[in-house]
UniProtKB/TrEMBL annotation:
This is Sucrose transporter. It holds the Pfam family MFS_1. Residues 7-424 form the Major facilitator superfamily (MFS) profile domain. The chain crosses the membrane at residues 7-25, 45-66, 78-97, 103-120, 140-159, 171-190, 233-251, 271-293, 300-318, 333-353, 374-396, 402-420. The lineage of its organism: Archaea, Methanobacteriati, Methanobacteriota, Thermococci, Thermococcales.
């Protein structure tokens, strides 16, 4: 199949829709749990890890399952067609469940919504390398991340307007956009011919049975590739992914609290600072993919981690110096944080955009879904570890430890990246970009 950037942009609508759902979910579900059902922050935090638990338990299985699937429309699209409409319907029902003030009904709605989101998330992610040659995957992943960032920004800015009108409107809007976006992917983006088997019937029961029997065996084999291989590149990059997501998730979870309780400014201003980080990430996602193709993925990721560490050190020094006089966005200290975070978002884009292509380029075409699942297994495992681990440091020492905590894990991730020797691309003189399985 001929590679076209236009197809990648359309595929990006799948990530656009998914990002809208998660941005709205993370913004408003904690409010519902605390205001309507009067749950503690600890219980609320545990409930908010349901999506990560599903990701850790199901994404490797579902990635492998989609690898094995063959239908008239391909191996990824059946999961999109089943998962996206179901998740959209349940997401739209969340404010209805809240209206009845029945915790069991509300929990059932969000648990099943999380399940159906997990059902098609890994196949959507694996769709990109299916239709993208190795040397274009960093650029393609940059486009995908740009579209995801655009969806999150639409949720944050548009969601506030809709929420002020009626708390249910963002959920109806998000459900409709996510459904339409993923249907666009199904209708417009073709899967490779070898995965489309016209006229061949499949037994869903047999497929599930075989996958259930062997998928965790495949996960075991993939993890064996990680830990038992003489060549440690896969272990090194997955360890780096685990470490940098611990760092990032700790900031994402606690930075607004740091802003309020340590810097002495409103939490909304702290959230706006993170929004600047996200905006910068979105704007730089596509250039980061091209930089990865030009400099090499490992070098680009390492440079991105160095940038993030540098801006966090700068932010720590600013926070330890003069405190903001107000929560105004024009306050010099607040403006300094926003300037640093804008640069930090660029560094984070260099890291995030180039990491998945490295992982999937360490395996064969038949195991793309399984290795995509490995990527999300390690990243979501980090998201389970980060909040309680960072919270323990904050409880014992205080909020001033938040930035140093993240800095340490970003540095450890940069060290781990230096042991990666596969999954990169280099430019040879007089030739196009060639895949290089071993970087010496």
């Amino acid at each position: 199949m001929e590679f076209k950037y236009s197809r990648i942009f359309i595929l990006g609508f799948g990530f656009f829709g998914i990002s809208i759902i998660w941005a709205l979910y993370n913004a408003y579900i904690p409010i519902f749990l605390q205001d309507t059902f009067h749950l503690s922050k600890t219980v609320t935090g545990f409930i908010m890890t349901i999506d990560n638990l599903f990701a850790v338990l199901l994404l490797p299985f579902l990635g492998a399952l989609s690898d094995m699937t063959r239908t008239r429309i391909g191996r990824r699209k059946p999961y999109i067609l089943l998962g996206a409409p179901s998740a959209a319907l349940l997401f739209a029902l969340i404010p209805v469940a809240r209206m009845y003030e029945n915790l069991a009904l509300f929990m059932g709605t969000i648990i099943f919504m999380n399940f159906f989101m997990a059902l098609f998330r890994s196949p959507v992610v694996a769709f990109m390398p299916d239709i993208t040659p190795s040397e274009k995957r960093s650029q393609a992943n940059g486009i995908i991340n740009f579209m995801g960032g655009l969806g999150a920004l639409l949720a944050y800015f548009g969601g506030k307007v809709l929420y002020d009108m009626n708390y249910a409107y963002p959920f109806y809007f998000g459900a409709a956009v996510m459904l339409l976006a993923n249907l666009l992917v199904v209708l417009v983006v073709p899967e490779p011919e070898e995965y489309r088997v016209p006229g061949k019937k499949i037994s869903i029961r047999k497929l599930l049975s075989e996958t259930s029997h062997k998928s965790f065996g495949e996960l075991k084999e993939n993890l064996k590739d990680v830990f038992a291989s003489h060549e440690r590149s896969l272990l090194a990059i997955l360890l780096a992914i685990f470490l940098w997501f611990i760092a990032f998730n700790s900031l994402e979870t606690f930075f607004t609290s740091y802003a309020k309780y340590y810097l002495g400014i409103e939490e909304s201003t702290g959230a706006f600072m993170l929004g600047v980080f996200s905006l910068s990430f979105m704007l730089f996602a596509i250039p980061a993919g091209f930089i990865g193709a030009r400099l090499g993925r490992r070098r680009t990721i390492t440079l991105g981690l160095v940038i993030v560490v540098a801006i966090l050190i700068g932010a720590y020094l600013v926070g330890e110096g003069t405190k903001p006089e107000s929560s105004s966005l024009s306050d010099p200290v607040v403006m300094t944080f926003m300037g640093l975070f804008f640069v930090g978002g660029m560094g984070w884009a260099m890291v995030n955009v180039n990491s998945l292509p490295m992982v999937v380029d360490m395996t064969t075409e038949e195991k793309l879904g399984g290795y995509t699942g490995l990527y999300y297994f390690f990243s979501q495992a980090a998201n389970l570890v980060a909040p309680p681990l960072a919270g323990a440091f904050l409880d014992v020492i205080g909020y001033r430890t938040l930035l140093p905590f993240a800095i340490v894990f970003f540095i450890l991730a940069a060290i781990a990246m230096q042991f990666v020797r596969r999954g990169d691309i280099v430019r040879r003189k007089g030739t196009a970009l060639d895949y290089v399985p071993d970087m010496d």
